[in-house]
Amino acid sequence: MRLHLKSKPIITGLALVLLFSSLSFKCSGGPPNDPNSQFRTAAKASDDIAQGISQMIDLKRKLGQQGKITPAEELVITDLLLKVNTADKLFVTRIKAMTTAPDANGKSALAALFAEVTSALAELNSKGFLPLGDAGAKGQLAKLLALATTAAQVIETFLKP
Amino acid sequence: MENLLALLTKLAPLAATFVPQAGGATDILTAIAALMKHISEQSGMTTDEILDRAGATLDDNEKKLLADQIRLHGGTP
Description:
The complex is a heterodimer of chains A (about 160) and B (about 80). Chain A is mostly helical and about 160 residues long. Chain A is built from 5 helices and no strands. In chain A, α2 packs antiparallel against α3 (about 70-95). In chain A, about 40% of the residues are buried. Chain B is mostly helical.
């Protein structure tokens, strides 16, 4: 089977997501006697999303300086990144406020809060990245978004009843 | 692993100097290396420490994004 040129970026993206996921699961064990280990998966994934946003900020700034995205495009991405950031911040605040492992109601409340994060990530892709004129810029930002989305899927698994 | 990620982060900008066409690839490589380093650091941290770091990163992100909004609307920062 020969690889078509257009499939290479997709394969690269998938390989990166796989690498990211495997590394994330490999690092799942925390120090012994961690009192809040029941929140660990959600905490790790929310930290991954926060760092993913940080990398996307740096990258979109660089792309803006290089003229690969217009100021109008950068402004849309900035607004949408702020929306994801605010949603993740609320999620982290809620986890921090919990003192015991969430029961069914607690998980349901966390899931509702986290739905805001996934919704904001989807909006960032559809309204921020997909309309970009420069295919290279679109591909780079989309790769980082794929990593953040993988982290989001880890949280969703944790929140399942 | 730490050494490999550190090496990757240092080599990426150098690659852009010698191979100008690799600019985009090195940017994304640097970003991914930084992300993976961040994840690998979690293994030695307690859950509270991870949450504190996430909170600090999110606060920092917010400052940067608000500054960018001002800049892109024609303001100073």
